[in-house]
C-alpha cells in the first residue's frame, strides 16, 4: 500500500499523501463504499478519477476511518462524524488528506507550464513580487494556486474569488512556508501555510 508521506505539523494535525500506483480493481477490493459513493465512482468517466477517489478512501483507512465516517455539506465540504476537521485532494497520481482538531485545507497540483496562461485569473497582489522570467516562476505560481485552493476549501464559502479575496505573502520556494490572508466582507483572516514539492507536484496545506 503506497503511503507516500506522513507529515505531523503539530500534535493536532496530520497530513498523509498517497501515490496511486494500483489499478482500479486493486484499490476497490479491500474497501467498502456507501451506496451513494459507489454510484459516484461508477459514474466517473475517467479511471484516473476513479482511482483518485478510491485512494482517498485508503488514506481514510490510514487515519482509522471508513467511507461511512465521511459526509459532505451543501457546499461540498467534507466532514468527519467524530467532529474532527478534514480536507481532501487528488491530482493525477497522488492524493492527500489532512485531519486536524482545527479547520484545515489541502491541495495537490501537478507542476505544469500552462498555469502561466491562467495566472491572471487567480493572481492579484502577488504579481507585485512575482518575476515571469525567473526560473522558479512556474513553481511559485503552483504554490500560490495550491495555497489559495486550500484556503477556499477551508473557508468553503460560495462567491469567493482567488484573485480578489486571497492574498499570499512573498516567499521563497525553499522555505516551504509563508503567511496567507483571506480578505472577505470587511474581515481579514490570517493563516499559516506550508508547502512542499515532490515528483513534479506541489502540495500546500493551511490551518
Automatic annotation (TrEMBL):
Residues 104-205 form the 4'-phosphopantetheinyl transferase domain. The keyword Cell division does not apply. The keyword Cytoplasm does not apply. Pfam families: ACPS (PF01648). Keywords: Transferase. GO terms for molecular function: transferase activity. Gene3D superfamilies: 4'-phosphopantetheinyl transferase domain. This is 4'-phosphopantetheinyl transferase superfamily protein.
